[in-house]
């Protein structure tokens, strides 16, 4: 496992923001300003990105990024943890205002969501049980059973249909062709199956380097195989159609990047500045 250091600064990437049938311009921003609350969807069970700590509080990189966005909007932050499928489906109907959940801005998702800002990149890596020492590269897992989060970019990668039309993303190849893909609600659930033993339920899990590193540091019997397969751009998502809200989120994230807040949060939670392409 290694990071490819090119030092390219994350560009302020903004996706097409246009009115859509299920949202009127300003509706979300007006609601946040009127209630004084930013309801943010995120995940749980993905340390150090988003997880419940020993005090039963949701915390992590994504949570702190969302909290800082709320602060700069002059609002309180209220986290919610809807299913991943619900987040990527769009048409949120006001149940939450924003999703800060390390979401890859694929072209398919952009049909139902807006992505006003990419806020960091993360390298994807295959993780196996440490008892197996024969897997040395991604292709060694061809034909094997590989786990991944359901309806996420890792599942798309394993199915060889990941599309990321984002400026500055390093090119990637499909380096593994599983025999079977087992999907899970979270990486943590996939890791629970992998920890049962080499090949018991899974041969590997496709996760990301920060999550895999945290699992290993917490005593999980895993090891990472080969080099990162793809560097994902991860974006803040909003429901389709509120140009004013999107513009405000873009402005805030750009400011967080410029004043060093975003990089500092990445260093705090990951030990490295992942707001840069490696």
- The first-to-last residue Cα distance is 13 Å
What kind of assembly state do the chains in view correspond to?
single chain
Structural class: alpha/beta
The parts where pLDDT drops under 50 for at least 5 residues are 1-24
Give the helices and strands, then pairings.
Blueprint: E1 8-9, H1 27-35, E2 37-41, E3 51-52, E4 58-59, H2 61-73, E5 76-80, H3 84-89, E6 98-103, E7 113-129, E8 145-149, H4 153-158, E9 180-184, H5 187-194, E10 204-208, H6 209-217, E11 222-239, H7 243-258, H8 261-270, E12 276-277
Parallel strand pairs: 2-5, 2-6, 8-9, 8-10
Antiparallel strand pairs: 1-12, 3-4, 6-11, 7-10, 7-11
Domain Solute-binding protein family 3/N-terminal: 37-273
Pfam family, one: SBP_bac_3
Subcellular location: Cell envelope
In short:
Helices cover 28% and strands 27% of the residues. With 278 residues, it is α/β, with parallel strands linked by helices.
